[in-house]
Amino acid sequence: MEILKAIEARTDYRFYYAESWLSDTSLSKNYENMLVEDILADVFENTELNFYISADNRIILTRNNRIYSDLPDGFLDEQEEKEVAKTTNSSSVPALYGRVKQQSITTAETVRIGKERSGKRQERFVLSGRVLNAETGKPVPDAAVIVKDLRTGVVTTAGGTYEIELSSGLNVVEVSALGTAGALKNVIIYSDGNLDFEVAESVEQLDEVIVQGDAIRTIEDTSTGNTKIGAEASKNIPLVLGERDVLKVATTLPGVTTAGEGAAGFNVRGGKTDQNLILLDNAVLYNPSHFFGFFQAINPFSIKDLNIYKGSIPAEYGGRLSSVFEISSKDASTEKVKGEVSIGPVTGNAVIELPILKDKAGLLLGARGAYSDWVLKALNDEQLQDSQASFYDFIAKYNHRINEDNQVSLTGYSSGDVFSITSDSLFNYNNRLLSLKYNRKLSEKSSGSIIVNNSQYKFNIDFDGSVNSNFEQGFQIDETEIKTQFKYLLNDAHNFDYGISGKLYSVLPGEIRPRGANDIIQSLSIPKEKALEAALFISDNMKISDRLQLDLGVRYSFYSAIGPSEQRIYREDLPKSESTVVATEVYEGNDFFQTYGGPELRASARYLLNDSLSVKASFNNTYQFIHTLTNNTTVSPVDTWKLSDSNIKPQQASQFSLGIYQNLSDYELSLEGFYKKQDNITDFKTGAQLQLNANIETEILQGEGKAYGVELLIRKNKGKLNGWLGYTYSRSLFKLDSEFQEERVNSGEFFPSNFDKPHDFSLVLNYKLTRRFSFSGNFIYQTGRPVTFPVGNYEFDGNEFVLYSDRNQFRIPDYYRLDLSLNIEGNHKVKKFAHSFWSISVYNVLGRNNPYSVFFVSQEGEVKALQSSIFAIPIPSITFNFKF
Q1: What is the model's pLDDT at position 103?
Q2: Predicted confidence (pLDDT) at residue 544 exceeds the cutoff of 60
Q3: Whose CB among 17, 212, 644, 839 lies 3.0–4.6 Å from 61's, allowing a Cys bridge?
Q4: Domain named TonB-dependent receptor-like beta-barrel: which ranges (predicted)?
């Protein structure tokens, strides 16, 4: 304003304006020998003000627009309205523009953006800004920013930003978002500019909300054989001893089974238990269970969701043949303290979420423990009176949104199990992992992540007998991984995902040492093993048309065993044994002495037959460089892991899948078929010595495998009665053939694997009687698993021996079980400290004596068959949960 007064004092010019237009911003400049017109142009350059100088020395200021003294050529000619393409980030939509524009004028607030400049008239300008929550100031993602009457609009990004192209002049802009009252403004735009919208929250009472996002995703995405399970999915399903378990829920879905009741590990589409990559926030979890497989190893209240990939495995994942179980933990609340607590018959667990920085950072802490010794002592078996079994696990996660473009999270986890079924042996095993992830938004189309994680699994056996043969035995595996991953949205037709990863393995195969000075056990330590696994990967999600979509990717895996190591060389014309060694190669520390690897293809396609029906197909091939050493039917806490080397090749698999998927009004249906071929599958000779064996390759057999099947899933998502029915028919067969009789099983023909169960049926139902009361039940039927039976006896050299059948020629009885539960929710008052939840369940309602295994003993000169069962009677339980 002082500049204007100075001009008036020194010249004959007089200014006309509204004082509210002038800001308090100071400007200090010297002007000499300059025209008033040039001075004003410089003063108002970065403002919304224009000026007009009349012939009688009056200077009229205008806000945003300009005053013209002459009409442009052709202004009075008839003008036709033209169609223009819509703006950035949306498909083309016709809009009208011209010197005369028809536009609705509302009673909303009017906002002027930029100012009109002299020169050639520009018809379109870019408006950008953010949509924010009026109460919290947080960005609102996926909000619609629409220009009314012109059918033009965009959607805000995850950071709440938008960018839209408007016609010059008046535009009525409306913002709407789920759960908000929206916003409406008259925007008069003269040049490119910025405008933020604030939207207030809007709460409306609804009778019922049905979320169908996953059902739509099942139809529209390109993946086959993949399932997402939310943590709440396990809330109402009756499970043994009342403990929530998303991994147990997974076994009720087609294609995922276990070897038996209480068995740890999973068999996915005919694969072995070691062929599953189980991840917690990107770090490997080697043993996912507690208490002999009855409980999952992760606090259920800390889990956000579980993604299972058993068909279309993304290119970013490798190292396992059958599946990926991707477990994601919750992000802690950054607004207020939250928590959840559960008290059951054998376990208690709690999770608390603590805000560290308001709306930016939070810390989740979870702990769980078992007080289960009383269960063993309560059983009517004197041999179990001195037994013990307990476990614990802890989890902590820190999540921090540094700003709109940068986020970081850190997860730590530790667990331990201790059990002793006999009076002389104490077993304990531990998981530990640490995972750090940093996400950065590089641009509107590109983002990147850096992931660093470390995992460790170990077990120990303490044997304390009555003679001088006491010992301590242990095993340990560590792995450390670094991965960088990028996502790039080229356009609507191409979405790239690419990166590189490297992983270092360190394995202590086993050691044994005497417990005391008088113990006669000789100390032994198997030399440590090391290996490097690396990979490059890239995939492109390609939209060919509205109906056809492809997901094509390739992963190149590289593996090398690292010294120090001693590798035996065996005669090729004789089976591997101590007597057929011809040489020993010695490798120094960090020598790369044996490499494997190759390309892994990942391809899937989806074709939409109509809006609710699609057909999908996929193919992938995979490498696995690490193997478990076990001759048990199921996972054991004392199983050890072995790295591929000069004598043990990596396992390989190729899988084809084909499926049809349909959504009806209340139902989701899918029917998938698969065929899987495997090479270098590991198995073992009969009576193999697997622990503390420095030359384990003499006990290992490697051969072929094949699996095929059909999976049916019918899911009801709506209504008071909901749930799913899953049925799988599948076969899993192995072939161990060799030119040497000692390395041949069942005459070199295909035979059923230990977990081959052709028929697998699951029915899970939940009936909501009222908002507070519901009934749940599940029924499971499975074909009995294969076993090897003695079929006779014979005498040799004066001794009597048992003659066994071909491997896995017979089956134990079929398995079936019915579980029921009553679920009672607390009241639904809005203002209360905590929400409670009771679950009263009965496991194995029918009291079915399902055999876990069949074994044979010799009594009084006769061989008798006996069976062992885990739960042969109904098991009631009651669990109390409350959430605040």
Answers
A1: 46
A2: yes
A3: 17
A4: 381-845
For 427, the token pair is: 């077993």
pLDDT digits (tens, 9 = 90+) for 686-722: 778 888 888 999 999 999 999 999 999 999 888 889 8
- Closest among 243, 271, 277 to 258, alpha carbons compared: 271
The residue with tokens 């896995």 is 808
- The CATH 2.40.170.20 portion of the chain extends over 215-883
Domain covering 2-63: architecture = 3-Layer(bab) Sandwich (3.55)
Host H or E run for residue 626: strand 626-629
| 3-state DSSP percent of the chain in helix, strand and coil, to 5 | 10, 55, 40
CATH 2.60.40.10 domain locations along the chain: 82-199
Which pLDDT band, with edges at 50, 70 and 90, does 274 fall under? very high
Distance CA 793, CA 806 (A): 14
Strands 347-357 and 581-587: unpaired
Pairing of strands 721-735, 700-716: antiparallel
What does the buried/exposed string (b/e) look like for 178-207 if buried means 16 or more CB atoms within 10 Å of the residue's CB? eebeebbbbbbbbeebebebebeeeeeeee
Q: pLDDT (tens digit, 9 = 90+) per residue, 207-257?
A: 443 434 455 667 778 888 888 888 776 666 766 666 788 888 888 999 999
Burial class (CB in 10 A: 0-12, 13-18, 19+), 367: middle
On whether the CB atoms of residues 401 and 361 are closer than 8 A, the answer is: yes
Per CATH, the number for 82-199 is 2.60.40.10
If you average pLDDT over every residue of the chain, what do you get? 84
**CATH class for the domain made up of 215-883:** mainly beta
Nearest to 777 by CA among 792, 788, 767: 767
The Cα 313–Cα 276 span in angstroms is: 11
Gap between the Cα atoms of 768 and 776, Å rounded: 9
Torsion angle in degrees (nearest 10) through CA of 148, 149, 154, 159: -10
In one-letter notation, the amino acid at residue 463 is F
Give yes or no for residue 628 having a pLDDT over 60: yes
Asked if 483 and 536 touch (Cβ cutoff 8 Å), the reply is no
Q: Which residues pair with 728 in a beta bridge?
A: 711, 760
Residue 150 confidence class, pLDDT cut points 50, 70, 90: low
Structure tokens at 366: 């979870």
pTM: 0.76
